[in-house]
Amino acid sequence: MKVKEQLLTLKPYIPGKTTDEVKREYNLDKIVKLASNENPYGCSPNVLQSITTKIPSFAIYPDGAATELREKVAEYLGVDGDQLIFSSGLDELIQYLIRALLSPETNTVMAKETFPQYRHHAIIENAELREVPLKDGRHDLEEMANQIDDRTKIVWICNPNNPTGTYVNQLELEGFLSKVPNHVLVVLDEAYFEYATNDDYPNTIPLLNKYENLLIMRTFSKAFGLAGFRIGYGIGAPSLIKQLEVARLPFNTSALAQTAAIAALDDKDFVENTVAVNAKELVKYYQFFDEHQISYYPSQGNFVFINISGLSSNEIFQRLLEKGWIVRAFPNGVRITIGKEEENEELMKIIAEIASVKLS
How many H-runs (helices) and E-runs (strands) does the chain carry? Predict the structure, then answer.
């Protein structure tokens, strides 16, 4: 049995080590995982109450159209129901966007240092990749626009960007969209939308009225704290959504996931409190990094991207791991999820030790 040749160049997604694995390997009693940008405060109490009182029949397939959830999200966003498509997390939505649009005769444009699933699935479809390096950790929209040609099908903008936490502002985004030809789909990955607090972070829903070649992706995995349920969604022109529905699996979101998402939308206070505490903790990190001369990017997500002069990202990762702290290493830095206050304070002390030992 032989798979597509391009699959041989790829590696399956390797999740970070589990807390139990690290405990055993390093003989540690306490492990803190800050690697996957999960919500450290869990999810709304509404969710547990809802999934234990509105238990669906497990012998029956879920509602493939996600009718109740569709109505809830449409009301929440102020859009029409036929502008929405639901998926098992954003990973699946990315997969069937690429399956629907890319082929060996086409190309796709993205940042070089961004969410890796755009690249991964484009390679599977044997499409040409046009990866544009970030500029100071931010999307280089001018060069991305230059890379677009008649064969371009999708441009990806992760906003805020994962892993750097940087963002494209309203003026920059509108300027970019005005340059993109109608045959190119611009996908705005707003997985961390709720965490963005800067005044000039784009208000993208109204842009859908002007640009039919725009698709916005959002998820319940981050600020809503439902990563374990795997549910996300896209927002776009009804004509586009109708075509994409053909690529969607019939029962791709579970009944429990739909129930949990509906309940989560009813608790705005939970999300608002989560975002407020995250912003407060980010400021503390910035002050600490400035004090200890640690390089970082100001973030609009629930994570921060750092580098310590004189240490490789793998060295930083390993030293933290040995002390029971799981973060995520990238070629040019380390991404740390913003945890609870006590976790952040303890981690700062450990990072200070690592930095001081290297500098001494």
Answer: 12, 13
